[in-house]
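Appendix B. Raw example, untouched.
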Amino acid sequence: MKNKEPSVSSSDTFVTEIDISLAKKMMADLKRLEFEISTPQYTLFSAKKSGVSCTLYQSGKLTVQGKQMKPFIEFYLEPIILKKFTFTYSDLDLDRTPRIGIDESGKGDFFGPLCIAGVFAQGEEVEKLKKMGVKDSKKLNDAVIVKIGAKIRETCTHHIVKINPAKYNELITQFGNLNYLLAWGHATAIEQLADQTGCKKVIIDQFANERVVLTALKRKQLVLDVHQRPRAEEDIVVAAASILARCAFVEAMEKLEKEFGQSLPKGASQKTILAGRQFLRTHGRENLRLVGKLHFKTLDEILK
């Protein structure tokens, strides 16, 4: 039996049907998530935890209730069991108007490139993004990001600006400020998509004062309807851009690790420092510019 389209019968109850062969997996998953499991009459199981409960009936009907219902559905039930995101992105909330979404990945990671991605979508393309499970990349693991990223590239007009570490280290010196470099990357992606699609509406996940990006666009003589706001990934087209940017970053990191034969942790944690010291011992300081962003304070810790 295939999973049927879910419905919400009230403001605090979610109802859907699933293949009952998934019952054992769900029970095991929910136990790991510290749910209390019971088996009332006519059910395969009932699971309860503070703020949320779910019950799978012998018919395959699944109900979810509670104040924490939304995060349970968004982060577990839809991506792991249903493989659909009709609750997270309901048709009523879906904006199908043409727009360009822009986001970046890698700016907080010592190792790896800085990647800025732009996606254009409208109408049916927006609906396809919803069906493939597009959401803010921070809510998805790398394996899912790579999988969905490939689908986005097949579905939507897009452009990716990937600045590998060696080039990044040159440009950061020229621009003198990360926000100016980011603005240039954003403007470059926007220019390409605006030229290809003719679209004038752009939504950006804001990372600095609005004037920074607007100035970069002005230098390219681009006159557009630009919206910059925090948490712009709530817009599904910006979320698609966030996935493409992260996908480009993840794929580039895998390539660097293979090239240099060692793990290069994401972020700028103690693991990053230890990996940087290992890299120095193996490949020398002169090659560190090929894998790392040398203006990070992390470099001082690596060199100690």
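End of appendix B.
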